[in-house]
Amino acid sequence: MTYDYDLIVIGGGAAGLTASGMGATFGAKTLMIERARLGGDCTWTGCVPSKTLLKSAGIAHHLRNAGRFGLSDAPVRVDFARVMTHLRAVRQAVYEEADAPEIYEKMGVEVRTGAARFLDAHTVEIARDGGSDRATGRFFVIAAGASAFVPPIDGLKETPHLTNETLFELDALPGRLAVVGGGPIGTEMAQAFARLGSEVTVIDMLPRLLARDDEELAALLRETLEAEGVRCVLGAGVKRIVREGGEVVITVEREGARREVRADAVLMATGRRANVDGLGLEAAGVAFTRHGVTVNDRCRTNHRHIYAVGDVTGRYQFTHMSEHMARVAVTNALLKIPMKIDTKHVPWVTYTDPELAHVGATEAALAGRGTPFEVFRFPFSKIDRAVTDVETTGWIKVFAKKNGRILGASILGASAGEMIGELALAMRNGVTLRQIADTIHPYPTYGLGVRRAADQWYVRRQSPTLVRILQKLFRYRGPVLEFGPDQIV
Is the pLDDT of residue 442 over 90? Predict the structure, then answer.
């Protein structure tokens, strides 16, 4: 058959933009359909605005605590409306620089605004104000993203509440902000709003923050947040949320006892759910569940010509993984080169201060599987750049085999998100701790901390017996050093 397009991409977020750009680069006649604005969650309601807000909040925090750097602490008056105007300007600039339709149209991608719905396995209807049209495609990439998930809590439906999709439209700073959810979004926004002047309470049903991350490092991060005034109510189930007069009343239950948390606003940071409704997946015969479109490790659905990538699959809800999955899907579809998702080296970062980053297997997972491994640690307090920057809170932890092959790593500290990239690269390419330790790193940098952590592999391999042989052979007279398993050199 002859189709209108070689490739139709449904969704214009990070995954859809990547897939469309690659399609055009490979010479495919490409159509990208987006129901709202290109850029998706990352540009408008996720990564870009949240990191902009964190930066503004961080500046305010450092001014108030300038004494740490030998300056005078300065009182800070936060003009929240101005902060949000700045946030929106940054967001718009990112859109115009990277996401605007004209950029992709110049590449040869046709961009249409509307809601796409499959009519059959090769046809979509594009509904928009004033009508609709249809398009047929040889290949499809579904990149419809995800939306904020709000659990069915008693009273919440009738109570005004915030999600990441509405948070960045605020113009007034809440005096008291309750955050339901202790994951990355919840912890990041808790710190940001606390630094901007809100009284913040984080509520989570689990006994700890950031349950997917290293338990020890997450606990240290919690200490930092609490020192800055964030109150954590953990191990507490939310039973009811209602508005009474001018405040929100949240009823929580912990260890069988109920209590109330009162706030001026509540942010529901309770996860995200794949946008599968309204896509007409049934008409196309595409398999899906309430968690997302079902795909294999080549990002292919149960139809050979239909692929799904990014948040809509429910597999990984990171912008960088959305882009990675898009590359995998388009490479398989258009180039016929077999390529799979790299599931073993997925990094993630929570951009609090200090940052918390991870790649590969966690310490808990390795221990649970009975995998033999060693933990190589190095504190930020011994990284000279961290000392000069007064950023000494944190640890580097690398989990590796006895031969130095890296299985995973967790970092809490300044620039942890940048540092974890070196370990992800090392893992993917089989670079060992010995090779990292032998590689020249610039001084003074945070990245040097990764090398110092790798140096600990050499320390563990130090053989007193070999040293004694060398002493006899060359008549050396120094002491024979012996290091304990937990000693850091």
Answer: yes
Asked if 43 contacts 91 with a C-beta cutoff of 8 angstroms, the reply is yes
Yes or no: is domain 348-474 CATH 3.40.30.10? Answer: no
pLDDT, tens digit (0-9, with 9 covering 90-100), for 68-126: 999 999 999 999 999 999 999 999 999 999 999 999 999 999 999 999 999 999 999 99
Q: Decide if domain 5-38+100-148+273-335 falls under CATH 3.50.50.60.
A: yes
- Bin 465: left if φ > 0, else alpha if -120 < ψ < 50, else beta: alpha
Region 204-225 average pLDDT: 97
Class in CATH terms, 156-270:
alpha beta
401, 372 Cβ separation under 8 angstroms: yes
Q: What is the 3-state secondary structure (H, E, C) of 323-379?
A: HHHHHHHHHHHHHCCCCCCCCCCCCEEECCCCEEEEEECCHHHHHHHCCCCEEEEEE
Give the model confidence (pLDDT) of 339-353 as tens digits.
Answer: 999 999 999 999 999
Segments of the chain assigned to CATH 3.30.390.30: 348-474
- Taking the C-alpha atoms of residue 208 and residue 34, their distance in angstroms, rounded to an integer, is 38
Label the pairing between strands 265-268 and 131-142. Answer: unpaired
